Give the backbone structure.
Amino acid sequence: MPRRVVVTGMGVVSPVGSDVPTFWESLLAGRSGVSYIREFPTDKLRSDIAASVGDFDVSRFMSPKEAEVYGRVTHFSLGAAVEAVLMAGLDKEPAALRQRVGCLMSTGMGSVDIFEEQIARSNERGPRAVSPYFVPGVMPNGAAALISMRYGFMGPSYSLASACATGTHSIATSALLIEAGEADVMIAGGAEAATRQNTVAGFGNARALSKAFEGDPTRASRPFDKRRQGFVMGEGAGALVLEEEEHAKRRGAKPLAVVGGFGMTTDAEHLTRPHPEGLGLALALERALQRAGIGPEAIDYINPHATSTPQGDMAEILAFRRVFGERLARIPISATKSMIGHLLGGAGAAETIAVVCSLRDQVLHPSINIDELDPELGSLDVVRDRRPAPVGWAAKCSAGFGGHNCALVLGKA
Amino acid sequence: MSEKRDLLEMFKTVAARVDKRPFPNVTSASKISELGIDSLSVMQIIGELETELGIVIPDEDLVELITVGDLCKKVEARLAAGG
């Protein structure tokens, strides 16, 4: 009998709350975390809005020296991981058990802030002034190392990157490691804190970003709406504790959801544009269903990638139609990004936490900012207000620059 | 106030800034390895002293550093040599 993977802990840092209860309450209330950027001048940028984290106190998690060494993305990663570890009760487990706990906490872009800071320092004062902590401070595996050191987790730890699918791939790969017996528990997730002048410039110049909608930043992220223009940069982190089911039972940890299956594919076609018919994403979802041992008819809720770009949303709906057929019109669907923006490497992880909350509480969060559902997308049941719903199985999809697709199928515990 | 004393004070100031904590009891005789400063932070302190004073301490000088006083002497020698 294959080893089954369950979720036993969750932690989040987000633009709408930096712990799971606040995050979930905000999502259910349909609260947007998008506002104007105040951290740097935006007058020459194509977009001046972002979803930023406002209530995160790094001193709760690390010393002033550590906070200086590590970038904001690593601050968020540790903050989310600590909440998840405490929820799962792993901090109380003996050292021997922790030898089989691993960590796959990733980032899409890494410590952009530290790169900028140290390069500016070198330009200003010469290369001798570059910090000896520059390299350990920016290495994308920094968070996995820090979390492992903090708790003595001696299982596999590293980071992976697949742009906007990073968090989802980290969850899928962690589940794979547990199923394969390489670890009993994994801290899995992703984070991003890359809202800087030059990254906003880069995404903006690629014409990927949305602007304030009719002067209102909170209406800018509008997946599936007819007048969607692009995504809104977000920041934050999501961390989940994944655990082999029997292992969780033995130590009395409460399963919050089941990781039924996952699928990972590649468009292999274009660096940034999704496959026009969402073929790669559809294949990922089919694989995830197959691994879960269920058919598409069993899916009760979809949490899509839904970045709010015209092409991306269209390709994703075509992928869903390929998998679910006409029944797609009757499957509730809601886009977490409509409220928290696009957390890039953290997106899939934070959004999976929303799915786990839905499975746990049997309630769906709304997708906001749909003034007029894009008729080109066909008939869809987009959740407009929080909705109690029986959810046995849910699908979570992510797609990243590079054509990387990852789908998860999660079940009620 | 001697040059040496100035450098000791400067070391303490820079160390406090780099390691984000005060070093009130450091003397010239204090062993660097016993200050509880990570080896990377020691290199960061040396880099700060170099850029602030406009000197370069060659790698071979770093091998012989045991005490804070040893470091001050190396810095002093470089200052006397004009960088």
About this structure: Chain B touches chain A through twelve residues (CB under 8 Å).
